[in-house]
Amino acid sequence: MNELNKALDDLDGLHEAFHALSDPLRASPLVSNAKLGKKLRHDLAAGADAYASTLISSSRGELDAKRIKKCRKEALARMPVAVAKQKRLAALVNERRVQSPGVRSDVQLLLKLSLHCRAALDALAPTVDRRAAGGLGNKVLVELREATLRYLSTEREAGIGSPQKPRAAVVENLKKTESHASEFLSLAPGSGDGASSLGVTLSRDVVDMLHKTSLDWAEGTLSA
Questions:
Q1: Counting beta carbons within 10 angstroms of the beta carbon of residue 220, is it exposed (0 to 12), middle (13 to 18) or buried (19 or more)?
Q2: Cβ 188 vs Cβ 124: under 8 Å
Q3: CA gyration radius, the chain
Q4: How distant is the alpha carbon of residue 119 from its chain centre?
Q5: What is the DSSP letter of 192?
Q6: Rounded Cα–Cα distance for residues 71 and 55 (Å)
Q7: d(Cα 88, Cα 91) in Å, to the nearest integer?
Q8: I need a labelling partner for 140 at 20 to 30 A (CA). Which of 25, 100, 151, 175 fits?
Q9: 101-223: which CATH topology?
Q10: pTM
Q11: CA dist 111 to 93, 105, 151, 222, Å?
């Protein structure tokens, strides 16, 4: 998904700038000016959250150039101070590039979970009780959004580096969401007898992804 990679690049940039503002080894006056730094970090955090929230709200889980444009627009609207200091922020980041591929991979997975869930709901819609599916679907999507934003928030608080703390912060959320997502299958006619409709297949994929992720992240937390 080329558009998803573009989105991840955008989010990486916002988070790298956020962490750079807390790096006392950088020469930029943006770091030494505590009041301005606080405003900039607030903007960048709000922008990242708005970007992620807009992305995972993509209708039917379809991510295209138009949605990326909307994500950027929503993010920019929430960070006026950062936009005004854009060139100085870029210079600050370029003083020393520090990236977190582990965090990027985790965020990619969380975003995919929401997008796949929307695709599954869209595929299930013609064959299930719309009211029941709508209520359950909204619950799962809200939970996935909360997990994604909590991951991003915890990563900002923990500092750039290992994804251990943000994973630990959301693993219980993912376990709860898995149990709710598994109820999708009970809504689909014949889903228990080997049916392989697109909606059922996508729903199973979401449940499997949630299960594997919660297990992997819980294991990493226990072994730390």
A1: middle
A2: yes
A3: 19
A4: 16
A5: G
A6: 6
A7: 5
A8: 100
A9: Four Helix Bundle (Hemerythrin (Met), subunit A) (1.20.120)
A10: 0.91
A11: 25, 10, 11, 24
Report how far residue 12's alpha carbon sits from residue 72's, in angstroms, rounded to the nearest whole number.
Answer: 13
Which residue is it, tokens 């993912």?
174
Q: How many CB atoms lie within 10 A of CB 160?
A: 17
DSSP alpha helix (H) spans, the chain: 2-20, 29-32, 34-55, 65-77, 80-84, 86-95, 101-124, 130-158, 164-181, 183-187, 198-223
For the chain, list residues with pLDDT below 50: 193-195, 222-224
3-state per-residue secondary structure call for 87-122: HHHHHHHHHCCCCCHHHHHHHHHHHHHHHHHHHHHH
Residue intervals of the chain classified under CATH 1.20.120 are 101-223
Model pLDDT for residues 73-102, shown as the tens digit of each residue: 999 999 999 999 999 999 999 999 988 899
